Amino acid sequence: MIIHDSKRWLLCVAIAGALGACATVPPGPPSEVVRLQNELDHLHADVRIANNGGAELSAADAAVYALSRDARHLDRDTLQQQVYVADRLVRIAEASGLARFAEQRGMQLGAERERLLAQTDARTSRVVATTTTTTTERRPVRVVSAGEPIPRSRAELMAMQEQLTGMESRVDERGLVVRFGDYQFEPDQPVLTPPAEQSLDALARVLRSDADARIVVEGYGTAGDGTIALQRAHAVRDYLDARGVDMARIDARRTASPDGDRHVDVVIRTEFD
Amino acid sequence: MIRYSFFLAAALVVSGIAAAADRGDAELELAQAANAVQSAERDDAASYARPDLDEAHAMLGAAHDAFDSRDWTGSAMYAERAKLTGTLAGARSRQHRAEIATTEIERSVSTLRTQLGLPGDTP
């Protein structure tokens, strides 16, 4: 009987000891911090974000690490603020990484489109009359057949094109065509985005080096987009003018878009065309 | 003893700086927050990240209210939230716009591939 009571007593002591040990073990980080750590782990597991998160992902890493280290020593208000900060940094890292991934993919696809367009041109070598006009003249332009020596004008345009890295451009029957998509303007506005302005800065440098090149800026849009299509063409012309390309060389106009695609084409032709 | 007193004083000073902001800190945070929100608006966050932009505006308003009440610490904290949420709105807007643009190019590549009789895979 005594032995039996002793065992029971020992069991109670063991349970009490175990509970006491649990009570003295420092608690883990708060649940909000654990959630942030998990979200950050997901970002690192996503190659689109892990490879493109850049400084934003590093900032999120640092914030969540500092929070997990210090959370138990912070007062309630400071903890809430730091959780908010870390949460926003994690989300900024996610959005920035995905944005860069989409931009890089867009550039790859743009290059692919150029390659396919070149294949299309090679298959349809022909002589066509240009639909491009300037204010003073309308001239036919010959498209070069595959394998035919490249004429001086085309070679010059291709040399120009090589300087326009990162821009969507092609050399076709109209000349060197540099395209500014709808996304390079503020939505429904004739206002250039900062990346579009950077592209136009590079284009202006090229155009200043060839004072004889003639430029047509064509604003494309649907039938209902007439005003904004023209305004966007004017915005591009004015920007180039502000960057030292004489406005007298530039003809800006509105052109109906057969597929309803909104964009602005800057068409460059040399004096040899 | 002197050594311990020095460390105690240093710890108090550091924690005081971390916990409280003065008027200058609040003004700086407010200016940075206003810039972040304006930048998000220029990135058309109103169209692509409206909830984040609204939250940034709300936080900026709260920061101004706290500043008017001479609550510099509260103002700096709200302004920091407005700055980060404004930055988030801009980043999400940029993400959505880039994804839309990529989808457009993807569609035209797909059309060209069809015209050329090529397989539909894109890079």
Account of the 3D structure:
The complex is a heterodimer of chains A (273) and B (123). With 273 residues, chain A is α+β, with helices and mostly antiparallel strands. Chain A has helices spanning 2-24, 31-45, 47-50, 54-70, 76-123, 152-162, 194-208, 226-242; strands at 127-128, 141-142, 168-172, 175-181, 214-221, 250-256, 263-269. Chain A folds into two domains: 28-102, no CATH class; 125-269, 60s Ribosomal Protein L30, Chain: A (2-Layer Sandwich), CATH 3.30.1330.60. Helix content of chain A is 55%, strand content 14%. In chain A, strands 3-4-7-5-6 form a five-stranded mixed β-sheet. A two-stranded antiparallel ribbon of chain A has the order 1-2. In chain A, α2 (31-45) runs antiparallel to α4 (54-70) and α4 packs antiparallel against α5. By secondary structure, chain B is mainly α. In chain B, 86% of the residues lie in helices and 0% in strands. The longest helix of chain B is centred in the last third of the chain and has 45 residues, at 72-116. The interface between A and B is medium-sized, with 34 and 34 residues.
Write the layout of secondary structure elements.
The complex is a heterodimer of chains A (273) and B (123).
Chain A (H helix, E strand, L loop, with lengths): L1 H23 L6 H15 L1 H4 L3 H17 L5 H48 L3 E2 L12 E2 L9 H11 L5 E5 L2 E7 L12 H15 L5 E8 L4 H17 L7 E7 L6 E7 L4
Parallel strand pairs in A: 5-6
Antiparallel strand pairs in A: 1-2, 3-4, 4-7, 5-7
Chain B lengths: L1 H18 L3 H20 L2 H4 L1 H19 L3 H45 L7
Can I get a quick summary?
Chain A has 273 residues and is α+β, with helices and mostly antiparallel strands.
What descriptors fit this protein?
heterodimer; A: 273 residues; alpha+beta; 60s Ribosomal Protein L30, Chain: A; five-stranded mixed sheet; two-stranded antiparallel ribbon; B: 123 residues; mainly alpha; Substrate Binding Domain Of Dnak, Chain:A, Domain 2; 0% strand; rod-shaped; disordered N terminus
